[in-house]
UniProtKB/TrEMBL annotation:
Gene Ontology molecular function, alphabetical: nucleotide binding
SUPFAM superfamilies: NAD(P)-binding Rossmann-fold domains
Organism: Paenibacillus aurantius
Gene3D superfamilies, per the entry: NAD(P)-binding Rossmann-like Domain (3.40.50.720)
Domain Gfo/Idh/MocA-like oxidoreductase N-terminal: 64-147
Official protein name in the record: Gfo/Idh/MocA family oxidoreductase
InterPro entries: Gfo/Idh/MocA-like_OxRdtase_N (IPR000683), NAD(P)-bd_dom_sf (IPR036291)
Amino acid sequence: MTAFPIAEREPIRLAMLGMVDGNGHPYSWSAMFNGYDPEEMAACPYPAIPAYLNKEPKGTLQISGARVTHIWTDDPEDAVRVSRASLIPHVVERPEEVIGQVDAVIVATDKGHEHVARCRPFVEAGLPVFVDKPLVDKEEDLQTFSRWVAEGRPILSSSSMRYCKEYLPYQLSTNNLGSIRFATITTPKSWERYGIHALEGIYPILGPGFLSARNTGSQDRNIVHFKHASGADVVVAAVSDMFGSFGVLQLCGTQDHATVAIKDSFYSFKAQLQAFVNYLRTGNRPFPFSETTELMKMVIAGIRSREEGGREVRLDEISAL
């Protein structure tokens, strides 16, 4: 079992595990720890990644104190390409091979229904795990992760939207807006994989207290109305092809309003990964796991409501333990 927190190891050795369709995090996240080879990264199948990496000065690109030393991906050829682009020295044939070789693992896939199986070997081995969003999309999987965390297993999961610098002023205070009465936030792609981006963007602003969800949309066009204990109504839209409106946030208050959109993906990804490293060093969570629990209930409630014809689903219907 890895000692936790990891106070002495310099640098912390990380394994980057998993790669699924539509998600290039192993390329970009590994580069934020290791640096990258510009020629190899130019061949990355996600052109937005080299575009935003190339904008960053070399002196501020990397997160200090940790390195990705091992890589495994579902397609072995992807692992070779990522290792060359992001300067990862060791490619393994099976993810479990990293046990005993690294201090912590990053599960870099965004299909929540797979995460219990992907994480189990490392949780049971005592390794700290960071899990890409969403942690889960099923009630029974939420119960499994909640049990592991209750046992003291070091598990962290978040969307990078929690760390967007454009949203930060409103996380600190919305007093100038008065009482928030209505809010909206948008994302492309599916509710199952990307709804959490929108949810975790709005959550640190309103805080805990979401009560129910009603999804009146469809598989490709999720329109989800949440009620919050503060009295605010929140509408989250996850529309499959709405790529021109990722992370557009609107806050409507009794005294003023605000509209803001994210512009700097690199900043939010780097801040998210830095928070994981800080957690590894100190053992102090950047936010309570109870927030992740509530957010996963919101994801699950949105799915359940859609599948049940738009029924209003209360979050307290969903059990975490």
